Amino acid sequence: MTLARDGGTPVRDTAFPTYADASGRTFGPEEVAALADVIARGTLWRVGGVEVAALEAEFATYLGLPHAVASTSGTAALHLAVAAVDPEPGDEVIVPPITDFGTVIAVLAAGAVPVFADVDPVTGCLTPETVDAAITDRTRAVIVVHLFGGPAPVDRIVRSCRPRGIKVIEDCAQAYLTVPDGDGSLAGTRGDIGCFSLQQSKHITAGDGGLSVTTDPHLAERMRLFADKGWPRDTGQRTHLFLGLNYRMTELVGAVARVQLTRLKGVVDARRRIARRLVEELADLPGLRVPGLDIIDRHSFWLFPILIDPDRLGTGNAEFGAALVTEGLPVTAGYLDRPVHLVPALTERRTFGTSGFPLTSPPARREMRYARGDCPVAERMIDSTLLVLACNERFTDTDVADLVTGIRKVHAAVGR
Fold it and tell me: Half-sphere exposure of 190 toward its Cβ, with a 13 Å CA cutoff?
C-alpha cells in the first residue's frame, strides 16, 4: 500500500477519541449532580466545605494509606512534597530528564537544585544505578517518575536512599493503579510521598487538581499547612507557621474528583485491554519494541510507548512517527521536544530574575550547568527511539484496528 505521505489513502480520516473533549473522557450525570449539590450549598472553597475533605479521605483509603492532601494541580502536589522535605537553599533533588517540567518546577520553587540522573533505555524511568551515581552529600530527595504509567523500580531506589536519610517522592501523575515490582501495592505507596494529578489528560480528571499521599503524619501536616499559607486553622489562630502558598482545592473540583475516583478502575482496566490487543498484534514487527504481555496488568497506559531500533529499521522515530501521523494516527515522536535538562529555563538559568538562583554557587555546591550529553540515554530516546501512541479508554475495536493497520503499513513501507 502507498503511504499517505506519498499520495496514498490514509488509514484514518476521522479523529480518534481524545482526552481534550468529551469523546475521550468518562463523565456522566453523577458529576453534574455533584456540582449542583455544591452550588446549592453555596460553599465553594474547601474551608467549611465537605467535598475536598471527603476526597482526601476516600483517596487515602483507596490507596490504603492514612493521609492524603489535596491541592490545585499535579505540579502543586509535587511542590507540597518537596516543601514537606524542607530542603535548604541549594540542596539537591534527583529527577529524571524525561518527565513533565512540573517535576522540576517543584524543585526550583522550593529553592532546591534539580540533579538529573539518566534513565533505563526501555522504560525511560530512573534506575537504582543512575540514582546512586547522582547522590551527593547535598541530596535531600529523589523524585521517581512512573513514566507513561509504567512502573519504575521504586523499591530498589528506596532501599538505597532510606539508610542515607534521602526521601523518595513518587510522581504518579501518569500512573494511577500502576503496580511496581514487589509486594503488589500501588505506585505512590512505596516511597515517602506519592503525588497524583487530576489534569485534563490524566486517567481521571477534574480539569486540574492534585493529591499527595503519605504514611508519615509529620509530612502530611507539613503538606496541609503549606497548601494553606502555613495557617493552622484548627487552632483558631490567624497566624502563619512558615512560608506556604495558597494551593487550596475548591469544592467544585473536589466534587467532580470524588465521582471520577469511582470510575478509575474501569478506566485503567479498559486501557489495559486496549494495550493487550496492541501488544498481541504488534509484537512480531522487527525493529519495534512494545511493552511485554507480562507487564500489562501492572502498567496503567497513560500513553502506549513504542521503541524504534534505528539500526534495524534504517530510520528513526521522527520519520516513522511523521508517516504514522499522515496516516491519521495519534502519535508523537520522542514525547518531548527535548529532555527536560535542556529546556531554556535551565540551560539559560531563567529562574528568579537574572540571579540564576538556586543554580549558582552559593547556594548550590557548584555552579549548575545543564548541557547536551548529561543524560545520553534519555537524549537518544527522545531524538531517535521513542514513539508514544495515544491510549484512551473510549477507543473502540475499530479504533484499535486502525492503530494496528497504520503501524503495520508504515513498518512495511519505511522499515528496512
Answer: 29
Which pLDDT tens digit goes with each residue over 119-149? Answer: 999 999 999 999 999 999 999 999 999 999 9
95 is written with which cell numbers?
529527577
pLDDT tens by residue, 161-198 = 999 999 999 999 999 999 999 889 999 999 999 999 99
Tell me the one-letter amino acid at 82: V
Q: Determine which one of 167, 202, 229, 409 is catalytic.
A: 202
Spatial distance between the Cα atoms of 272 and 294, rounded to a whole number of angstroms: 12
Residue 265 appears among annotated catalytic residues: no
CATH topology assigned to domain 29-260 = Aspartate Aminotransferase; domain 2 (3.40.640)
Q: Where are the alpha helices (DSSP H) in 315-362?
A: 317-326, 344-347
Give residue 175's identity as a one-letter amino acid code: A
Burial of 276 per CB tally in 10 Å (0-12, 13-18, 19+)? middle
CA 176 and chain centroid, separation = 9
Q: Assess contact for 64 and 94: CB atoms under 8 A.
A: no
Tell the burial category of 7 from Cβ atoms under 10 Å away from its Cβ (0-12, 13-18, 19+): exposed
80 neighbors 221 (Cβ within 8 angstroms): no
Q: Do residues 32 and 38 make contact, with C-beta atoms less than 8 angstroms apart?
A: no
pTM flag (> 0.70): yes
Please name the amino acid found at residue 7.
Answer: G
Nearest one of 115, 192, 135 to 158, comparing CA atoms: 192
Coil, strand, or helix at residue 288? strand
User: Is-contact 234 222, C-beta < 8 A?
Assistant: no
Where does residue 289 fall: left (phi above 0), alpha (psi -120 to 50 degrees), or beta otherwise?
beta
Q: Domain ranges in the chain?
A: 29-260
